[in-house]
Structures are given as C-alpha cells and as structure tokens.
Amino acid sequence: MPWKNQGGGPWGSGPKGPWGSGPQSSGPRPPDLEDLLRRGQDRLQQLLPGGYFSSLGIAIAVLGALTIWGLSGFFRVQSEELGVVLRFGKHVRTVQPGLNYHLPYPIETVLLPKALRVSTISIGMTLINDPARRGTTVRDVPEESLMLTGDENIVDVDFTVLWRIKPDGVGNFLFNIQNPEGTVKAVAESAMREVIGRSNIQPILTGARTTIETGVQELMQKTLDGYGAGVLVQQVQMQKVDPPQQVIDSFRDVQAARADLERLQNEAQTYANRVIPDAKGRAAQIIQAAEGYKGQAVAEAKGQSARFLDVYEEYRKAPDVTRQRIYLETMERVLGPAEKLVYDSGTGSGAGGGQGIVPYLPLSELSPRRTTPATPAQPPQNQQTQGGGTR
C-alpha cells in the first residue's frame, strides 16, 4: 500500500509526508491510480476465460497487438506535402496529399517534406521583428550584398529567390543535400556575383535587371542540377540595386547628367527626323522641276531646229518665193499687234477739202491699254486734212 494510506510511518501517524503535515482539504479526494489499475486487471481477467496465460488469452492478445501494429501504417499527407515512403531506408515511392498507407514500422517509414510549398530566400538583407512598429524591418547585410562589377565598380545588390522541390526530385532533395536552404542561398549568392562580375555598372543600374535575373536563374538551376539537389528555381527578383552608400549621391548626379544627355540627343534626333525629310522633299521637287524644264527646253529646241530645216529645204527649192514669204510673215508678226494710222497728205477735193482744217485724232482709242484694237474714227467726208487731202 502507498505510504499515505498507512496508519503510521517514519514521520508519525496520520496522513503526513516527509515535509510535515499533509494538506488539509475538505473536498473529495482524487481517485487512486493503483486502485484503477487493479480494477482494470480484474475486468480483463474476467473477460479472458482461463486467465492471462491460456491459449485463447494469448491468441487474443497477439491478434490485438497485430491489429494495432497494422493500423499504425495509416498516415495523412497535408496539402503542401508529399509523402516519401522508405522501405528499410530505401526510397520506394512518393504519394500525393491525402490519407495513405504504408507497411507498419520497421518495414516502411514515411517522410513528409514541404514539397509543394514555394520557399523564399533573401540575400543581402534580413527581416527582423520590430515590436515597436508591430511588424518587421529590413536590415542590410553588406557582406552578402556588396559585389564587384566587370568595370571594377562596387554595387549593392539585394535580391530574393523563389524555389521549391521538384515533384520528381523529392528523393534527391532528401538524400543528396544536408542543408537545402543553406545550399540554395550559397548557390544564389555565387551565381549573382558571377553574373554581376561579367556586367558593367551602367546597365546594372538602368535597364539590364531582367537580363541579370534570367542569367542568375539559369546559372542557379544548372548548378543545383549538377548537385542533384532536386530543387526548382522558380524566380529571381532583384529588390535593390544601388551604388555603395558612401558614393550614392555622386552616382545619382552622374545618372541625372546621363539622362539629360539622352534627352538632348533624343530632341536633336527628333528635330533631324523632321527637318531632313522636308529638305529632301524640297530638293526632290527642285530636281523634278529642273528635269521638266530641261525636257521642255530640249523639245522646243528640237522643234525649232526641225522647223528651220524644213524652211531651209523649201528655200533651196524656191529662194525668191521663200524669201518673200519669210519677209511678209515677219512683217505680219511685227506689225500685227501695232496700232496703225494711214492718211493722205495730198491736196483734198470736194466741198469738204481745204487748207488749215485740223484733222480729228482719237487719242483715247489709240491708247495701248485697251485690250481690243479700236478702229480709228473716220473724219467727215468733206473735211480736209492738214495736207489738203481727205481721209
């Protein structure tokens, strides 16, 4: 019997312990564990005829143990996990999320890695819990982020890597690498330093981020596949790319000057693109006009030459007639547009003739400003001209 139920003991009579008097409690006492075990043994002995060590009792006990052992093979795989079943330590199969079964221990065991979860690793920075701000703050890690470029400049690069376990490489992930997260981080930092070391600082700070991210991802995947790590690199994201803090102001001034230079070059190129086509168009127009005038002048010269040759042929056949014809045509061409006045200067006759009479001269009608030639007015029939004749 336990010492507390005995009437006396080494510390005297009553419910006392080694530290003096027992607790004074007026409530119900808790059940005794030894009494519960004794009652359970009695009930089990009543259910097993012939006692514990009879053949039927042993068979029932063995059957119960085998049932419990067999049921121990059921296991559940969560949504982010994959079940890797090992038979005597060898990978035999991979099971999907849900309720599954494997042969009980020690024949088969199961490992449950987070194979369907995308993990994130940050290089060059670390997240620290900040109770004052009720969140996390980012702390820079210079020994990871400072890198040397191909043109011997220093650049501060912070980036993150998104990775997960390959569905067909869970066994390699579990057995080929001892520290998966540390391996991925070391490979990521090494790949970024190699890519940055092959590039100049200017593209890194401006527009070459996508190219660098793609190069780092491909190099990481190639290295991890060479290790047989069973890791799939999904994405590399550059969070911050800046010069060192000591010279960042000078770099910003240089970037501003480069931006102004590019802007002025773009404006000059825009002006050139607007002016040069206009000048080329005007030059083409002048050339076409000159070509047209050239064709016209050549055609007229050829026509005049042909006409002259035709006239010459006629002149050779009949010189006198041709000469007279040329003379008449020339006089017609010269005197045709001119205003002409014809009068008789002889002695007039008739009732209207006589000396001293002023002839009528229509000056307004003889003016060359009129478009149509005016016919000179005829003087009266009996009016004498200055010379004594009539018109």
Automatic annotation (TrEMBL):
Concerning its family, UniProt says:
Belongs to the band 7/mec-2 family. HflK subfamily.
What's the main place this protein lives? Answer: membrane
Keyword annotations from UniProtKB, A to Z: Coiled coil, Hydrolase, Membrane, Protease, Transmembrane, Transmembrane helix
Residues covered by the Band domain: 72-255
**Subunit description:** HflC and HflK may interact to form a multimeric complex.
InterPro entries xref list: Band7/mec-2_domain (IPR050710), Band_7 (IPR001107), Band_7/SPFH_dom_sf (IPR036013), HflK (IPR010201), Membrane_HflK_N (IPR020980)
Query: Which cellular component appears as one GO term in the record?
Result: membrane
Q: Which residues cross the membrane?
A: 47-71
Write down what this protein is called. Protein HflK
